[in-house]
Automatic annotation (TrEMBL):
InterPro entries: Sel1-like (IPR006597), TPR-like_helical_dom_sf (IPR011990). The lineage of its organism: Bacteria, Pseudomonadati, Pseudomonadota, Alphaproteobacteria, Hyphomicrobiales. SMART domains: SEL1. This is Sel1 repeat-containing protein. It comes from Tepidamorphus gemmatus.
């Protein structure tokens, strides 16, 4: 099973370019529908949140849709993960 998660410093550097918001949006889509990974709404929310912070116009609405299907604790976990990722990268 393929996993496209930006953990390494090198991969994070690739995501700093002009298309980074789209890359993060695609990660959100991947986790929300389970394309090549198990569906994970917390991870999807995290990536949509990061994409929205990077200026992706549609990501915020997808994040909102997913949040409606999540518990308050899951949303908090996703928001925490997005903040941690942004602080590290």
């Amino acid at each position: 099973m393929a996993r496209f998660d930006m953990q390494s410093h090198h991969e994070a550097g690739l995501a700093q370019g002009a298309d980074s918001a789209d890359i993060f949006f695609r990660l959100g889509m991947m986790y929300s529908i389970g394309r090549t990974v198990e569906p994970d709404l917390v991870a999807a929310h995290k990536w949509f949140n990061i994409a929205a912070a990077k200026g992706h116009a549609v990501a915020a609405s997808y994040r909102q849709e997913i949040a409606a299907e999540m518990s308050a604790a899951q949303v908090a976990d996703a928001q925490r993960a997005a903040r941690e990722w942004l602080n590290l990268h």
